[in-house]
Design a protein that fits this description.
Radius of gyration: 16 Å
CATH topology: Bit1
Largest sheet: 5 strands, mixed
CATH class: Alpha Beta
Number of domains: 1
Strand content: 15-25%
Distance between the termini: 24 Å
CATH architecture: 3-Layer(aba) Sandwich
Oligomer: single chain
Length: about 140
């Protein structure tokens, strides 16, 4: 059964990331959405034996890629549309914990962030317009 959603969860990755970085950045970015937007998370799972599992997003996460310019433009559009978003900067590859991650982002003005990933959530059409110029991740 396919369900059409009026919202979209999307991740935009910079195209020059290594495969391990793409996976790591995607995982970090989407973790932020679930903590602040309870409506994106479904109900807990349970198998036939009654073993409980954590809930997951209630809808697919679409992953896109683009150059640095596409990522910068998408970030600007996400902010102007006030879409809930999470960022991952190149500086975070050199840190080892959450406090240092937050300090690394806090140390750079918005326009100077060296973005390698962006996650956004919102109405489908707003997210589509925000990601203009990006392509689906292969």
């Amino acid at each position: 059964m396919t369900t059409a959603f009026d919202t979209k969860i999307a991740v935009l990755l910079r195209e020059d990331l290594e495969p391990w970085q793409r996976l790591n950045v995607t995982a970090f970015l989407v973790s932020g959405l679930g903590t602040q937007l309870p409506e994106v998370v479904g109900e807990p799972y349970e198998d036939a034996d009654g073993t409980a599992y954590l809930p997951m997003f209630r809808q697919p996460v679409l992953v896109f890629e683009g150059g640095k310019d596409v990522l910068t433009a998408a970030h600007t559009r996400a902010l102007s549309r006030v879409l809930p978003s999470a960022v991952f900067t190149a500086d975070l590859f050199a840190t080892g914990n959450d406090a240092d991650n937050r300090a690394a982002v806090r140390a750079v003005p918005t326009a100077g962030l060296d973005l390698v990933g962006l996650a956004v959530y919102g109405p489908r059409n707003a997210v589509d317009k925000t990601l203009k110029g990006a392509r689906m991740h292969p």
